[in-house]
Write a structure and sequence with these properties.
Blueprint lengths: L12 E2 L5 H4 L5 E2 L4 E5 L9 E7 L4 E2 L16 E13 L7 E7 L5 E7 L5 E3 L4 E9 L6 E11 L4 E9 L7 E4 L16 E4 L6 E7 L18 H5 L7
Length: about 240
């Protein structure tokens, strides 16, 4: 029997089953293996600050974790305990600037997201970030703005369906589960990996789901921003606490 490299396969099949109803006429029946991810969550109600409140920040790069100089490249990298979405907040009703977050997803792939202010409000992003390496604002802020974290938690792959999500004591986690998108990653679309929005954080969350094993299932590739060398070109490789 030959040896196959499963890590490069788009579809998994096993056994001698054959027929159009089983495997599109190819030998072997489809195999789908459930996976379990453990999401380490913050304490209940915790909201991490990525960029502290800044009054009318200038066009350019916002401070990350209080480091850097306003309008210049920040000198820190913000790292999350678990991949989470980000939020932007302003206290000015006329705020319409765009904040672009650059960083990496939970798999270490570069990604970016553009989030637009809508007046005096908190606007939540759709992608989940493991790190933030740069925050750029498109126009001078009209009010006091800040960047924080949301309640959406990211998983490593796109899902076929959820089996269960529970805390360590095996209590089911209420909330919303999204399997992910099949669209090519850009700075303005939703995350194509699975996401969980629990109604509470009380302990590490164990998520069991059937993953999409195609290359696209892990969020492979991104159209547009960021460029292939943006991290090396724009950002020192330092680590924030």
């Amino acid at each position: 029997m030959g040896t196959q490299t499963l890590s490069h396969a788009d579809l998994f099949k096993a056994g001698d089953a054959k027929g159009p109803l089983l495997s599109d006429g190819a030998r072997g029946a489809f195999v789908n293996i459930p996976t379990v991810e453990i999401i380490t969550t913050p304490v209940a109600g915790a909201v991490a600050t990525i960029s502290a409140a800044l009054a009318t920040p200038a066009v350019g790069n916002l401070l990350i974790d209080g480091s850097g100089v306003g309008g210049a490249i920040a000198s820190s990298i913000w790292t999350a305990t678990a991949a989470r979405n980000i939020t932007i907040t302003s206290n000015n009703a006329g705020e319409v600037a765009v904040v672009t977050a650059y960083g990496t997803d939970i798999n270490g792939n570069p990604q970016a997201e553009e989030i637009t202010f809508v007046g005096a409000a908190t606007i939540a992003g759709l992608k989940t970030f493991k790190t933030i390496t740069r925050l750029a604002i498109s126009a001078t802020g009209l009010g006091t703005i800040s960047v924080g974290t949301g309640v959406i938690l990211g998983l490593k792959m796109r899902a076929v369906n959820l089996v269960r999500a529970s805390f360590e004591n095996n209590v089911l986690v209420p909330g919303t589960f999204l399997p992910g998108s099949t669209t090519t990653q850009t700075a303005t679309n939703a995350d194509n990996r699975a996401r969980l929005t629990p109604s509470a954080y009380t302990a590490d969350i164990h998520v069991m789901y059937f993953p999409d094993f195609t290359k696209e299932g892990v969020g492979y590739g991104m159209a547009g921003k960021p460029g292939p060398n943006y991290t090396a070109a724009d950002q020192p490789s330092s680590s924030a606490p």
